[in-house]
Amino acid sequence: MPTDKSGAIVGLLAGLAVGAVLGVLFAPNSGKRTRERISDKALDLADNVKDGFHSIKDNFNNGKQSLGGLKNQVVDNVKTKVNSVSQEFKEFRDTELEKAKSAVKNAADDANDAIQNA
């Protein structure tokens, strides 16, 4: 699962924004040109924030998909185990039932022989 880098991305973007604004404010340009540059830098920053958000969202979705895959794997494993135990129980039950039938038949045959020989 990817590590959480959202704090680093936000810090980087904030640092870029502060640096860009300070650079524009201290540059030797006219007021109109400075405002245009600030506006351009703000739009660039908004795009960078949007890209960072989409990156975080993609990481979240990938993690969610990984958890979904893990859940499906666990469910499949449990189903396999349940089916295996169920089959083993049926085989045990059938074997024990045959043993019981055989014992009852032998007891009935012994009782019948004892009655006939009496």
UniProtKB/TrEMBL annotation:
Alphabetical list of Gene3D superfamilies matching this protein: Apolipoprotein
Membrane spanning residue stretches: 6-27
Keywords for the protein's UniProt record, in alphabetical order: Membrane, Transmembrane, Transmembrane helix
InterPro entries: Desiccation-related_membrane (IPR052928), YtxH (IPR024623)
Pfam families: YtxH
Protein name per Swiss-Prot or TrEMBL: Gas vesicle protein
Species for this entry: Pedobacter ginsengisoli
